[in-house]
Amino acid sequence: MAFESLTERLQNAFSKLRKKGKISETDLRGAMREIRLALLEADVNFTVVKNFVKTVRDKAIGADVLKGLNPTQQIVKIVNDELVAIMGDQAVDLNKSPKIPTIIMMVGLQGAGKTTTAGKLALKLKNEQKARPLMIAGDVYRPAAIDQLVQVGQQIDVPVFQMGTDVDPVEIVRQGLQKASEEKNDYVIIDTAGRLQIDEKLMDELARIKALANPNEILLVVDAMTGQNAVNTAEGFNDRLDVTGVVLTKLDGDTRGGAALSIRAVTGKPIKFIGQGEKMTDLDVFHPDRMASRILG
Ligand code: GDP
Q1: Which GO terms describe its molecular function (predicted)?
Q2: How far apart are CA 149 and CA 276, in angstroms?
Q3: In a mutational test of the pocket of ligand 1, which residue from 1, 116, 248 has the highest number of ligand atoms less than 8 Å from its CB?
Q4: Which ligand 1 atom sits nearest the alpha carbon of residue 116?
Q5: Spacing, Cα 65 to ligand 1 middle (Å)
Q6: How far apart are CA 266 and CA 125, in angstroms?
Q7: Would the N or C end of the chain have less CB density within 10 A of its end CB?
Q8: pLDDT tens across 26-82, in order?
């Protein structure tokens, strides 16, 4: 289960405090040490953990919680609020173009869940906004990727524009956008190539697609199971492409929590959606407060 160990360790730290009744500064320091270790073990970014612990301690001391009633309850609240804050406070909507189509470019490493998420997002827009999206198959390096997107399109009844694997992806995107304009599609979702790791050639290609398509949204898809690597990947893509949002996939797995808790703080970019399963309906808007509640258990 996601966050299992983090949740358990945080709850242990709080239950130790609760047993004390009155809490001394030493008790608080001990609890903060446990929280710090729990976060580090969950693979949360080191600087994020350091700032988190300092903020929680300063707030607890500043608010004189140790002298008040229910000090543990107040500390739990401060931790909760701070978890919400590092994840971005509030849900952030998709950027929308004032005139159709809104163009969304999906980027990310191979296997992160780009193609699946493109389909999930198309279905969500269709179901919730009665949108008429078009998906463009821009991953020409993996022939199976195009077939996969075509299959996803059939499954959710969303058209897919593709030109096979022998055409420059920038040209595919150009023609795909022309098609969308003719068909008056209100959303265009561009699936792009991924690699096992970030390389220059891939980044160049994505930058060229970005320059041509001028997308309203560049969604970086990252696998929550990869913890710190997800954060490093996010930094790499963001430095080069200035992404507008992140989709965190595979939160139905047993991720420790590092990616969810670090990405916003490290990159400054909001997590907009979370993938929680392999089905096309398994995509949800990311709510920092709900995620914090889930982590605290
Ligand atoms: P791409 O290479 O980035 O396009 O990745 P794919 O879309 O092909 O996804 C890789 C694998 O991850 C596939 O088996 C997907 O079904 C799976 N996947 C994607 N998102 C999720 C998710 O949120 N949860 C789970 N459990 N699996 C996912």
Answers
A1: 7S RNA binding; GTP binding; GTPase activity
A2: 19
A3: 116
A4: 7
A5: 45
A6: 29
A7: N
A8: 999 999 999 999 999 999 999 999 999 999 999 998 888 878 878 999 999 999 999
Instruction: Give dist(CA 236, CA 238) in Å, integer.
Output: 5
Q: Say if residues 170 and 208 touch (Cβ distance below 8 Å).
A: yes
Asked if the peptide bond before residue 215 counts as cis, ω within 30 degrees of 0, the response is no
pTM above 0.90, yes or no: yes
Query: What is the atom index within ligand 1 of the atom nearest the CA of 253?
Result: 26
Which residues contact ligand 1 via a Cβ below 6 A? 108, 110-116, 194, 221, 249-250, 252-253, 275-278, 282
Q: Could you list the residues known to form a binding site for GTP, using ranges.
A: 108-115, 191-195, 249-252
List all residues 6 or more positions away from 19 whose beta carbon is below 8 Å from its beta carbon.
none
